[in-house]
Write a structure and sequence with these properties.
Layout lengths: L36 E5 L6 E2 L2 E2 L1 H9 L11 E4 L6 H12 L8 E2 L16 E4 L4 H8 L4 E2 L1 H7 L8 H10 L12 E4 L6 H13 L19 E4 L4 E2 L7 E2 L1 H16 L7 E3 L4 H17 L8 E6 L2 H21 L24 E7 L46 E3 L2 H11 L5
Parallel strand pairs: 1-4, 1-13, 4-5, 6-7, 6-8, 8-9, 9-12, 13-14, 14-15
Antiparallel strand pairs: 2-3, 10-11
Helix pairs in contact: 1-10, 6-7
Length: about 425
């Protein structure tokens, strides 16, 4: 990642890149000229807290509207939550009195649409409400739930004491014809972690068919696992962050290693901060720009996030991926779980830079007193007590990646910053 320096001429007390990275004044938002940049918004902590929109976000979106109330800049919403896209689009639309299409909303699982090789396989879907509907929207056509597995194999879930009583009193019937699980799709944390953890380990130890104990639990070929959303915590209405899907994954990884002695292997990691999500977001913005009538390719992305270890790391990883891909012919050495699959449906990759914009309205709490003369704002929520890494195991801990290109107090200040950068009158 390039060096990030403080610009004294900027109004915000944070970081910005050298102006040579951005084409100043090249695209006037006057209705007669296409823009060649797009904006990506995280939702929780940036635009809203829980179901309540933030006032600065309302002001920011108003600046992006034309006289008819439509967006003047191609925009997408990138969240690690797991909802139905049309529900979230409707919610965002109601918050800001703005037309929002489902395709503008990218949830943690959304890029799994690119993983076509798994779409027809018997897939166990882990999550909560609408998990089967979400999986089917992604293209997975042969799905089941953990409840289906429990019904087929009643003796597996003995951490559920009610199930113990049911089996003891009424007996049980297994279904040996229940199809083998070919792939596990983890789209979000389940309701009953203990039961899901138990049965997931059972399936991993038996190659998806838990009818007999493995001969050697330390040497079992692992069925593919796709995990969406690695967030350890997220910010909602509570006074402090809540456990996210990353916490559930951490439990699964620890149990698997404790029992088998091996590291759990992910076939694909999907969701922020992985590069595949930002690539899919670029594709979405390019598609929206084309629908708006823009003829210029998208050259710059601005990504607003509130979590340095997720949003900002992801945007900076993608910025590095773009630059190394362009100069080294895609030679950058990514872990297998983070590779971006070739897909003919993706718009051409044209973005030359991804600018990370950190806001102080969510997970991250800015401490101006920690700024140095050269602009070294701390971006780790625990930085004063030691560097505690909250990221996923398959994403190397590189503290420099958690530093944004620009810190802004809120998203409204950020939109004003972008307009100045792009030479847009407002």
């Amino acid at each position: 990642m390039r060096t990030i320096t403080h610009q004294g001429s900027e109004e915000s007390d944070g970081y910005s890149t050298d102006n040579s990275d951005v084409s100043m004044g090249s695209d006037l938002l006057d209705g007669s000229s296409d823009v060649n940049f797009g904006i990506l918004f995280d939702v929780d902590g940036v635009l809203a807290r829980g179901s309540t929109p933030l006032d600065p976000a309302k002001k920011a979106i108003e600046k992006l509207k034309d006289s008819e109330g439509n967006l003047k800049v191609p925009v997408a919403f990138v969240t690690n939550a797991c909802n139905r896209s049309h529900d979230k689009a409707r919610q965002i639309s109601s918050w800001f009195d703005l037309p929002v299409s489902p395709e503008q909303v990218i949830h943690a699982p959304t890029p799994a649409k690119l993983l076509r090789q798994f779409h027809g396989k018997h897939t166990l879907v882990i999550g909560q409400e609408y998990r089967l509907e979400i999986a089917e929207d992604l293209g997975f056509s042969n799905c089941c739930t953990i409840e289906d597995v429990k019904e087929a194999y009643p003796l597996l879930d003995m951490v559920d004491h009610a199930n113990r009583v049911q089996v003891a009193k009424h007996g049980y019937t297994e279904n040996p014809n229940f199809p083998k699980i070919d792939v596990v799709l983890l789209i979000g944390e389940p309701c009953r972690w203990e039961s899901d953890l138990q049965l997931l380990i059972d399936l991993l130890l038996t190659e998806g068919k838990p009818t007999a104990a493995p001969k050697d639990p330390h040497n079992v070929p692992q069925i593919p696992i796709i995990a969406c959303n690695m967030d350890l915590v997220f910010m909602a209405e509570a006074c402090m962050p809540r456990f996210g899907h990353g916490a559930f994954l951490l439990c699964l990884e620890a149990l698997y290693k404790k029992i088998t002695g091996n590291e759990l292997q992910y076939k694909n990691l999907v969701g922020k901060p992985c590069e595949i999500t930002y690539r899919f977001a670029e594709h979405t913005v390019a598609k929206i720009a084309k629908q708006m009538g823009n003829t210029k390719p998208i050259k710059r992305l601005y990504f607003f996030g509130d979590n340095p270890s997720v949003d900002i790391v992801g945007a900076n990883l993608y910025d590095r991926y773009i630059k190394q891909k362009d100069t080294n012919g895609n030679a950058f050495d990514l872990p297998v779980s983070r590779l971006i699959p070739e897909n003919e449906d993706l718009h051409e990759q044209t973005v030359e830079s991804c600018h990370s914009m950190l806001v102080g309205t969510g997970v991250y709490k800015h401490k101006p007193e920690s700024d140095s003369i050269n602009g070294g704002s701390e971006t780790s929520t625990d930085s004063s007590k030691g560097d505690v890494y909250h990221g996923h195991r398959d994403i190397a801990h590189e503290p420099e990646l958690s530093k944004p290109h620009q810190y802004v107090h809120d998203v409204h200040e950020g939109i004003e910053y972008i307009f100045r950068k792009e030479g847009i009158a407002h």
